[in-house]
Structure formats: C-alpha cells, structure tokens
Amino acid sequence: MSALTKKVAELMHEPGCAKNQAKSEKERKKGCGKQLTPGAAAGGCAFDGAKIALQPIVDVAHLVHGPIACEGNSWDSRHVFSSGPSTYRTGFTTDLGELDVIYGGEKRLFRAIREIIEKVDPPAVFVYQTCVPAMIGDDIDAVCKAAREKFGKPVIPVNAPGFAGSKNLGNKLGGEALLEHVIGTEEPEFTTPCDINLIGEYNVVGELWQVKPLLDELGIRILATISGDARYHDIACAHRARAAMMLCSQALINVARKMEEHYGIPYFEGSFYGIADMSDALRNIARLLVERAPMSGSSTAPKVSSALDRPFRAAISGFIDRFLPS
Question: What's the CATH number for 35-181?
Fold first, then answer.
C-alpha cells in the first residue's frame, strides 16, 4: 500500500469528525471509505482542496506540478486577502507537456524550484502533486528533499493528486502536509500565556480583520492562523500556542486533533458569525487559556467578562433605541 493510500485511509476514518463519532464501526467504514461516483468530485478534486486550504499562506511560493490547466483552475478561487506579502498571488506551475509524460517531470520540477528560489526567494516553496505526474510516477517527496538539501530552504511536498478523492479530502491532505513538514520546525521570538491558533480560518475577503481587533482588546495574541493571511514562520511556530479555535472542522479537524495529541493544545469548535457566536467563541478562548494558566484565572476572567459585555451591551442598547423605540 502506497503512502498516499495509507494517508487517505487514515483520513477517511478521522476520529475527530462529528459524523464519524455518531456512526457504528461498520457504518463508519462504509460511509466514509466508499468510492466516489462519477461526477461526485465535480465541485473540486483533492488537489483543488489542498490548494485552497494552503494558498492563503501569503509569503510562500505555491508551485503546481502538472499541466498548466490545473493551476489555472485553482488560482485565486477563494478571494483571500493579505495584509502584507503578495507572493501567493503569483501562479507557479511546471506546465507539463506530452514529452514530460513520456520521460518524466522530476528534472523539470527541480529546475522550477531552483528558478523560484533564485528569482523570488520566498521563505518556503509548497509543491503540489496533480494527477498526471502522480500517474507517471514522479516522486515529488524525493525531489523536494533534494531541493531542500541543495538550496537550504523548506520545500514542502503536498501529495494530493486530484484522483485521490474529493475537495474535502484534499483540505485534510493539505493539513497533513503542514503537520508533517511545517508545524514544529521553528520557534517563535517570544510567547505569551494568551497565544492561540485559529484553524480553518482563511481570511476570505478580509473577514479575519473584523475579528482581530476584539482579540487584541482582550490581550489575546493570534500566534498562527491556518491559513488565512498566514506567514510561513508563524505556522512553523504554531506548536507553541496555548489554545486553538477550530472554525471549519469539515476541512481541518485532523490538524486540531493531532496538535492536541502531539503538543497538548486544547481546542474547541466555534464561529465568529453573529453576536451570540462571537461572545461564545471569545468566552471559550478565555476558558481554555485560564484552564492552562490557573494562577491568572482570578484576574483574567473578570477582565474578559467585562471586555465582552461592554461592546455587546452598547450595541444591543443602540439597536433597541433605534429600531424598537418605547
């Protein structure tokens, strides 16, 4: 059994998935491991899922190893915004042709990585496997390892060819690439007792920027977002967070669960949409941080409660005065 096949089988039975937890062992295997029907992946293949999950990492180069149409179909499909670097907005591809199918595309991939490093010099290069090179047997793991040793930069293989499965499976395969090759490889300049990770947040049309001021006001620092408006260094340091919030469990629940297992980072699933969900999310973040720092609980909890209540009470009062006059 190939490494990809093993990884797909593992992700099909993700224990952190709420749907899996509600099934019997027999139904769990039947429901998640069944083959796709023709056309079932029309909304996006595994490669597309991995690409949109990781492309919001804004300072790295995203190199698609395959025909140029694969990059064209996935480029900028999410409309994610960046507060700084724009490297992620450049489409890089090896543009495989018929001769590459015959002779193999590994040398072409290595040259592409070298050209990106020489001309763009990103902190890392993410290399995405697609259907054609996977079927002809191109070993992107070996090429990425050779390039990493040659150029002294992280070159991350994302082994998620389209035929592996659905877009959702591709999201999880992208998360696995981060767990295996990125998270835990660097250390932050400093840490605080209020460092958190946001997992499954993509900063679509800048939505993250509406939430960050509230966290800043509470003294909560976002150590890493996976992966909206993210920097490579921040994700590499994500293992030092004190707590995590899962915003899209359908996509990256495997990342949250494994980070809890490997690094002891507790997480909860929440949402930033609406006053009630926002309030619950901020309170849950505070609860996890206080649980991990009991000595500060007596002073932190009242501050969090007060900071949460003030803006919401003011907003609700204004709404009542404006729309529900006495």
Answer: 3.40.50.1980
